[in-house]
Amino acid sequence: MSGPPDAPAAPAGPETHGLVPKLLRYVTGSVVATVCSEVAFVVLYGVVGLGTAWSSVLSWLAGAIPNFWLNRNWAWQRTGRPSLRREVVPYAAIVLVTLLLATLLTHLADAWLHHEGVSHSVRVTLVAAVFLGTYVVVFALRFLMLERLFTRLLVHESGDGER
Predict the structure, then answer these.
(1) CA distances from residue 17 to 53, 123, 124, 148 in whole angstroms, order as listed
(2) Are 94 and 52 contacting, i.e. CB atoms less than 8 angstroms apart?
(3) Residue 42 and residue 93: Cα distance in Å, rounded?
(4) CA of 95: how far to CAs of 3, 12, 91, 130, in Å?
(5) For residue range 57-82, what is the model confidence (pLDDT) as tens digits?
(6) Is 1 in a helix, a strand, or coil?
(7) CA angle 45, 137, 141 (to 5 degrees)
(8) CA of 147: how far to CAs of 98, 121, 153, in Å?
(9) Measured between alpha carbons, how far is 37 from 49 in angstroms, rounded to an integer?
């Protein structure tokens, strides 16, 4: 059920307000997205043999797409067609920071472990841990940024932001 492209998304109902239920939905959605990303990273880097940059980018994409929909539709209870300018672009900017960090940190870890002569299986395990750790570290910051984004949209859509 999509509305016109410029139609505002329906605001959350009273039962969806509250930080704890939203945080629990966010955690669950983030776990799903993180599993998608981590499995993709291990397969691409460890099995297929892609470098850390491509593995990070493709794995990020494997998690970012379900993460957007789970966060938007489930955690923040947004409905309707998302606004490219007000939702998709700010969301992409927020999660691109994670991609850049993951790409940089996995590359540095891989280069260091290669230099140290660490075996392939240990290197895959440790670099995958760095990839996962990057997501864990930015988890809380991303929640706060997404909360601000979706709250600002709700205020704008209710007309309170036009005064």
Answers:
(1) 39, 44, 41, 14
(2) no
(3) 25
(4) 26, 23, 6, 17
(5) 999 999 999 999 999 999 988 888 98
(6) coil
(7) 125
(8) 17, 39, 10
(9) 16
- How far is it, in rounded angstroms, from Cα 99 to Cα 37? 11
- Residues 110 and 96: their CA atoms lie apart, in Å, by 21
CA dihedral 69, 70, 73, 76 (to 10 degrees): -120
Res 2: pLDDT? 44
The rounded distance, in Å, linking the Cα atoms of 108 and 42 is 17
Question: Does 42 score more than 90 pLDDT?
Answer: yes
- Residue type for position 115: H
The one-letter code for the residue type at 30 is: S
Residue 153 has which token pair?
């949209």
Helices and strands per DSSP (H, E), number in the chain: 4, 0
Rg over CA atoms, the chain = 18
Tokens of 115: 């230099």
The structure tokens listed for 66 are: 């379900």
pLDDT tens-digit series, residues 106-163: 999 999 999 999 999 999 999 999 999 998 888 888 888 888 888 888 888 887 654 4
